[in-house]
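Slide 14.
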Amino acid sequence: MITANIFETFYRQLVDFFIDAKNIFIDTISYFHKYLNRFFPDDVLMIFLITIGAILLILIFRSIINR
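Slide 15: predicted structure.
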């Protein structure tokens, strides 16, 4: 019975840790979105993120080809 309680406690603590990590990640993204939204509308932010993503993919693709 003690072993079952240890596993149950470990499981609950692990789930709580993942929930806390998810909340911290979402809060951080929300904070940056609110901050950037003061300067740019959502359309400009989306175009900016798509551009950054495309540049990163091009750099990764070029590094794979040049090997």
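Speaker note: Residues 2-37 form the longest helix (36 residues).
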